[in-house]
């Protein structure tokens, strides 16, 4: 018999952190790792829209790191030292920086602000970038409210959003899609 997916334990609006601590589902820690899960799902969608093998591989690596981040955020920080939770490493950030640098080598210099659009994969990459920025803001909010969040997580999410912006441009470049340049309306005085 298959394992039942529903447990009914959350029917009253509470859930458990890794370690057993019960919190409201509206708790910022739950909102934060839920947003990281949303980010991971959108990265899967983006991966389904692209064909570049290197980018697809990189996105799978990022999904793995986001599971690590989600686990770190989902654990009760008071019980974390006794648990075997995978760690994010500085090398994970360096990996993103190398990928950014590699893509930038073939991209034209950016001389204008650009708007999301032109191709479904480009637009999806920008949606992913926005969700990443939201996850980063939530982590910063946790920190400001004195809830533990590993500082490397904030750094990783910051660099990941940079990677996603460059990836959006790179996808457009690979597909010969012109960037949608933002031409602001002239302000009447």
Automatic annotation (TrEMBL):
Where in this chain does the entry annotate a coiled-coil region?
Answer: none
- Keywords for this protein: ATP-binding, Cobalamin biosynthesis, Nucleotide-binding, Transferase
Pathway(s) it belongs to:
Cofactor biosynthesis; adenosylcobalamin biosynthesis; adenosylcobalamin from cob(II)yrinate a,c-diamide: step 2/7
The domain of life is: Bacteria
Record GO terms (molecular function) = ATP binding; corrinoid adenosyltransferase activity
Q: What class of enzyme is it?
A: transferase
* Catalytic reaction list: 2 cob(II)yrinate a,c diamide + reduced [electron-transfer flavoprotein] + 2 ATP = 2 adenosylcob(III)yrinate a,c-diamide + 2 triphosphate + oxidized [electron-transfer flavoprotein] + 3 H(+); 2 cob(II)alamin + reduced [electron-transfer flavoprotein] + 2 ATP = 2 adenosylcob(III)alamin + 2 triphosphate + oxidized [electron-transfer flavoprotein] + 3 H(+)
Q: Which InterPro entries match?
A: CblAdoTrfase-like, CblAdoTrfase-like_sf, PduO-typ
User: Which parts pass through the membrane?
Assistant: none
Documented EC number(s): 2.5.1.17
Signal sequence coordinates = none
Ranges of residues in domain Cobalamin adenosyltransferase-like: 5-170
Pfam families recorded: Cob_adeno_trans
GO BP term, pick one: cobalamin biosynthetic process
Q: Which family does it belong to?
A: Belongs to the Cob(I)alamin adenosyltransferase family.
Task: Give the multimer and partner information.
Answer: Homotrimer.
Q: Which NCBIfam families match?
A: PduO_Nterm
Any idea what this protein is called?
Corrinoid adenosyltransferase
Q: Which organism is it from?
A: Panacibacter microcysteis
């Amino acid at each position: 018999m298959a394992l039942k997916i529903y447990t009914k334990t959350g029917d009253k609006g509470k859930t458990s952190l890794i370690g057993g601590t019960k919190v409201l589902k509206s708790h910022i820690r739950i909102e934060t790792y839920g947003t990281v899960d949303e980010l991971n799902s959108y990265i899967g969608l983006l991966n389904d829209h692209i064909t570049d093998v290197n980018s697809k591989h990189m996105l799978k690596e990022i999904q793995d790191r986001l599971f690590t981040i989600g686990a770190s955020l989902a654990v009760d920080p008071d019980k974390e030292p006794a648990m075997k939770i995978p760690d994010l490493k500085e090398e994970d950030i360096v990996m993103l920086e190398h990928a950014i640098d590699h893509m930038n080598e073939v991209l034209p210099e950016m001389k204008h602000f650009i708007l999301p659009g032109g191709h479904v994969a480009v637009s999806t990459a920008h949606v992913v970038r926005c969700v990443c920025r939201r996850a980063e803001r939530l982590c910063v909010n946790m920190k400001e409210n004195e809830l533990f969040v590993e500082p490397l997580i904030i750094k990783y999410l910051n660099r990941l959003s940079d990677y996603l912006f460059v990836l959006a441009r790179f996808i457009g470049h690979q597909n010969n899609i012109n960037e949608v340049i933002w031409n602001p309306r002239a302000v009447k005085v």
